[in-house]
Design brief:
Layout: E1 3-9, E2 12-21, E3 24-29, E4 37-42, E5 48-51, E6 57-62, H1 67-76, H2 78-93, E7 105-108, E8 111-118, E9 130-134, E10 137-141, H3 151-181, E11 194-196, E12 204-206, E13 212-214, H4 223-238, H5 244-253, H6 257-271
Parallel strand pairs: 2-6, 8-10, 11-13
Antiparallel strand pairs: 1-2, 3-4, 5-6, 7-8, 9-10, 12-13
Length: 274
């Protein structure tokens, strides 16, 4: 299980995630080359604190670090942590909420598409509102009755249509990617079930029974990012927390996962913007 901590900076309550890692190094003993003995010893590590663009605080510590040592380290960097959270929050404020009108940007599998809302005045008596990709545009064609809605009600409708379209697309894509990746994870004997759940700060999770929960917003990201999240959760079937063994396991099935994660994190605010 993932460990979590909390500390206060003024009146602000700040939560953080704890990742424990054990790093080994080789030491040699003996007086000559002939009787040199190579042993592995635990190498002391400093505590590393990171604030992510989604305002998550993650602290990486030696595996045997006490709660007091971790808390002391957090308090020493409290102002820096708080300031970074505030800076990322301000950046988030610049991502304007969508109005679901023509001209806005929508994402699909890492590509940008221009939203075009088409009313019945531009179509031939459309009876059911639909969503389609066509020539670099995401077209939402409204039925005759839906075209008469006021701007606020129309925005709600267009959002619901697009959300449902995303879920339907991701339902098939997530199953396709899972089937393509399952051979990499020898510890998984049966293909797990996949449930879609919209989340604001998580891309996915893995239940105690080994079933996957994925955020349908992932369909906006490149397939490689989708693969990263699926493999991340499949690794949790064997390693339930973010231990050193977990990260080694993930590196085995996706050696370049750090670069992919960085790409996904950098676009998180846009992909999750509704």
């Amino acid at each position: 299980m993932t460990e979590n901590g909390i500390f206060y900076y003024g009146q602000d309550k700040i939560y953080y995630e704890i990742v424990r890692k054990e790093v080994t190094y080789k030491a040699t003993t003996g007086k000559s080359k002939a009787d040199t003995l190579t042993t592995e010893k635990s190498k002391p590590r400093k505590i590393v604190i990171k604030v992510h663009p989604d305002q998550r605080v993650v602290v990486t510590t030696p595996i045997d670090a006490t709660d007091k040592i971790i808390n002391d380290a957090m308090m020493k960097r409290a102002r820096w942590i708080w300031q970074n959270i505030q800076d990322f929050a301000k950046q988030k404020d610049h991502v304007l909420p969508k109005r679901y009108v023509s001209g806005e940007t929508q994402f699909y599998l890492g590509r940008r598409y221009v939203l075009k809302v088409i009313t019945n005045a531009e179509t031939n008596d459309v009876t059911n509102s639909t969503v389609k990709l066509s020539r670099g545009k995401l077209n939402v064609e409204l039925s005759q009755s839906d075209s008469t809605l006021n701007l606020e009600a129309r925005a709600v409708l267009v959002k619901s249509l697009i959300d449902e379209w995303y879920k339907n697309k991701f339902r098939s894509i997530s199953r396709e990617r899972l089937e393509a990746l399952i051979y990499k994870v020898s510890w998984v004997k049966n293909s797990p079930s996949v449930k879609l759940m919209t989340m604001k700060k998580q891309w996915g999770s893995c239940s105690a029974q080994g079933n996957l929960i994925l955020n349908p917003h992932l369909v906006k990201a490149p397939k490689e990012c989708i693969d990263y999240v699926i493999l991340h959760e499949l690794c949790h079937i064997k390693e339930h927390n973010h231990s050193e063994r977990f990260w080694r396991l993930l590196s085995q099935v996706m050696p370049h996962w750090k670069a992919v994660k960085t790409e996904l994190d950098s676009m998180a605010e846009l992909y999750l913007n509704e």
